[in-house]
Every structure is written in C-alpha cells, then in structure tokens.
Amino acid sequence: MPSVPPEHVCFARVFSIEATRPQPAEIAEMATMLPAATPVYLTAVPKVVGDETVATATALRKAGLEPVVHVAARRLSSAEALRDLLARLTGEADVRRLLVIGGDVEPVGPFPDALAVIQRGRLREAGIEEIGIAAYPEGHPRISLARLAASLDEKIASAAAQGLRVHIVTQFSFSAEHILSWLRKTRAGGISHPVRIGLAGPTSLPQLIRFAKRCGVAASLRGLTSGTASVLIGNVGPDRIIEALAAAGPLGAVHPHYFSFGGVVATARYARRIADMECAAVQAAAHS
Questions:
Q1: What is the 3-state secondary structure (H, E, C) of the chain?
Q2: 127-138 confidence digits (pLDDT tens)
Q3: 117 belongs to a structural domain
Q4: pLDDT, tens digit, for every residue of 161-198?
Q5: In a domain, 215, yes or no
C-alpha cells in the first residue's frame, strides 16, 4: 500500500469482522492474530437458536475478543423472547453491544423494524451500552433514499433517548466513490457518530458476485462484471477501497468492517496484514 498520511493512521488499524457461525477452532485461531477486544459481529442466521448464539458469544469473550450480536427485529417472536436472549447474552457472555437490524422477512412478532426494538426493547435496562445501526451507501433495493436518511435520524435520536451509544455499520460496497459520497453527505448532515465501513474480505470473484446480487449492491456489481474487474479475479481483498478511504481526508471516526465471505480466519489474517502494512507505511513516512 502507498504511504498513508499520519492523520489517517487509524483507518485500517482499527477494524471489526463479521462472522457467520464461527467454530471454536476458528475463534481460537482468530484470537492468536487479532488485537485484544477486536469486535466480532455475529450474523443473525435464520433458524440458529439462542443457545448457539450465546455459546458463540461466550467463546469470543473468553478468547479476548468483543462479541457484537446481530438482533433481527422481525425474527423476534415476542418481547419476552428478546428479554430472555438479552439476559443470557449479558449474563453469560458479557455482551454490551448489539447490531440492531430489521431482518429481511415478514415480522413474526411485535417488532416490525429495528426502530421498534430500539424504542421498546429496553436494551439499556438489559445491560446493553451501545448499538450499531445499519446504513446503505448504495441505497436499499426496497427503501427510498429519503426514507433511509429519515430512519437513520430516528434511530439515532431514539438510541440517545434510551442512553445508548451509537455507531453506524454500512452494507458492503465495492465502490470507494459511493462510500465517500455517502460519508460526506452523512457528515454534512450533522451525523458525527463512528462509522464502520462494510468491505468484502478476500474471496473469489464468483463469490463476490453472488453476495452482491443477494444484497442489492447493483452499482458495485456493474463494476465487478465490467472489463475493469479483472483486478478482482482470485482471492483478493478491498485494497484499493482502503487506500482511497485512507487518503480521502478527515471523515471523523471511520474504520473498516470486514464481511468474511471467504472465511473468517482468512478475513482476520487479511485485516491484520493490512493494518500492519499501514502502520509500517506511516512510520516510514514519519521518518522520511
């Protein structure tokens, strides 16, 4: 990577990882390569029961990592189910952070969206101190841009009223231009909360295309499938996006959030390598 200006030293150095059902051996291996208390977000997987989620969060905590559990509002069968899950997460795994999302299904209980969980879920009473809120630099296939912006404001305001700290986690993108445009508009609109930028960890081009289609990042997908996408062939990571974001100028607290499409251990190894390279580049620049 090219030299990174000192004022952007924290961009790749501070990061989080999103994992889907990481196994004990994977958690143990991640713990050997990641800085202590690195946030590991546990994806809300359909049909995964609370026992497994609590056990995985507990294993992450014991390994010295920071478990951040996705709570999908529309999959919660009742307020009691949420209360019981939170009691176990905080009591057994010392979970203090959640990512509160809607969940792309029809509601099965009393929570129609993430805002309802923030407003009525009594998260602070349960011991939760901070929540992540989802954002979409490339838009959402079923929600207008105006509604997305209004929803973000509503969730932030509601969280503040509940005494919860807030950070923002974006959908993954393959376009630095879309990310930077969204970031600048968000900051200009007065939102100064920390942002974790969703990036696809190292994986193959077919895998990237499959996830891009599933998640609706159409603008990025067009770039992937164009003639300029040859740089993405093979198991590679978002190096160019990281370089662009690191060099973009002050954007507040902004850090990478890696989706582990190619495997959580490979993603952790990549994230640590990029962070180490950035530190080395900054140190070299400081002494040149």
A1: CCCCCHHHCHHHHCCEEEECCCCHHHHHHHHHHCCCCCEEEECCCCCCCHHHHHHHHHHHHHCCCEEEEEEEHHHCCCHHHHHHHHHHHHHHHCCCEEEEECCCCCCCCCCCCHHHHHHHCCCCCCCCCEEEEEECCCCECCECHHHHHHHHHHHHHHHHHCCCEEEEEECCCCCHHHHHHHHHHHHHCCCCCCEEEEEECCECHHHHHHHHHHHCCHHHHHHHCCHHHHHHCCCECCHHHHHHHHCCCCCCCEEEEEECCCCHHHHHHHHHHHHHHHHHHHHHHHCC
A2: 999 999 999 998
A3: yes
A4: 999 999 999 998 888 888 999 999 999 999 999 999 99
A5: yes
